[in-house]
Each structure stands twice: as structure tokens, then as C-alpha cells.
Amino acid sequence: MNVQEVIPKIHWLGHDSFRIEGSKVVYFDPYEIAGAAAPADIICISHEHFDHCSPPDVDKIRKADTVIVTDGASAKKLSGDVRVVRPGDRLNVNGVEIQVLPAYNTHKKFHPKEAGMLAFVVTLDGVRYYHAGDTDFIPEMEGLGVDVAFLPVSGKYVMDADEAVQAARAIRPKVAVPMHYGAIVGSREDAERFRKALEGEVEVVILEKE
Q1: pLDDT of 18-35, one tens digit each?
Q2: In this structure, what CATH number is given to the domain that contains residue 133?
Q3: Among candidates 152, 167, 160, which has minimal Cα distance to 198?
């Protein structure tokens, strides 16, 4: 993977929301989408909380043939071509491979494992992107073999920067991108702490919000 070629395709929209532009346009957890946005081919939604499953934001980017991949709780809030999945599922959406993984807290009550909340590994144009969802550092992260990992760093509801460092060391992505800060909880300082701790181990790219 050529990092210089891949990073410009990744757009951080704030919080846990990303858009990846390639042969398909893929969104993760669209929330507080500002202005005109590229229409989505695929939307992956990790769980039903308002800052991840936002029907008004989905409507801003959805086309007639947009496919939404999400859990059962979120699906109840959405319409259109919604594919309900669970951790462990794999599917192919118009040539894009999606592996569904769990996301959960290990020592907090906000995202219990039994709720079936989601993380995703999306393979687009040969690049494997891991969106961890709202999670702590969990065993399922070990040996994922992804190219790009989007990892929460803010603490409180999700893992903090120190736990995210452990996660990055377990995943060993080519690039790690911090998320879940700058809205609701967390700040850029969390992202910077994450980057500094991984210097010389994992390349960390802090994206500017679009």
C-alpha cells in the first residue's frame, strides 16, 4: 500500500465519521455532515446511538441504490436497501468486501458486548480499512492485518489514547488514524498523545476535519 496515494482518499468528517473515495464511495457513521457531500455507494453504521446512526445525515448522502450495512437496532431507524449484519458476517456489496466484527466496552457500560454493536473491515480497491466503532481494546483486534485502522482515542465512552496505542500495536496497521474526539468528548491532544506514543512503531496520520 502506498500511503501517499491512500491518505488523500480518506476524509474525516468529524467524530467517528469518514468518507473513503475510490471506485466506490464508502461512508462510516455519517454524522453532522456539513454542506454538499459526495453521494454514497455504501454506508456502514456501527450502532444505533445518535452520533453514529443519524437518519438526517444518511438522507444527505443516500442515492436510490445506496446500500446501508448496519445492526438490527440501527436498521429500525433507516429505510432503503439496508443489510442487517452481526459480528462474524462477511458480505460483498458491489465488489466491496465487508467483514463485520464486534465493538464493545470491556470495563464500561455504554457499549455492552451483548448489544451486538459493530466494527468493519472494508476492502476497497485492494486496501483494507478497519473502522473500530465505539470500543475498548478487545481481543478481536489481534492480527487483523489491515492497511488503515480508524481507532477511537478520547476515553470515557471508548478507549483512551493509551489503550488505543495497545490496540494499534496489536493490529499493526500500515497507518493508524485517530477518531472519536473533537465532538462530544475528547480533543486533538488525545490524538497527538496517541501519535507521539507510536513514533517509530506505527505511522499515525491525524486528519483535519472537513
Answers
A1: 999 999 999 999 998 887
A2: 3.60.15.10
A3: 167
Burial tier of 182 (Cβ tally within 10 Å: 0-12, 13-18, 19+): middle
Amino acid in the structure at residue 11: H
Count how many domains the chain has. 1
User: Are the C-beta atoms of 115 and 135 separated by less than 8 Å?
Assistant: no
From the CB of residue 11, how many other CB atoms can be counted at a distance below 10 Å?
A: 18
Give 140's DSSP letter.
Answer: G
Residue 209 located in a structural domain: no
Sequence-ordered list of residues with C-beta below 8 angstroms from that of 190, at least 6 positions apart, any chain: 153, 154, 155, 160, 161, 178, 181
Give the global pTM: 0.94
Task: Collapse the DSSP code of 154 into the 3-class scheme (helix H, G, I; strand E, B; otherwise coil) and give the result.
Answer: strand
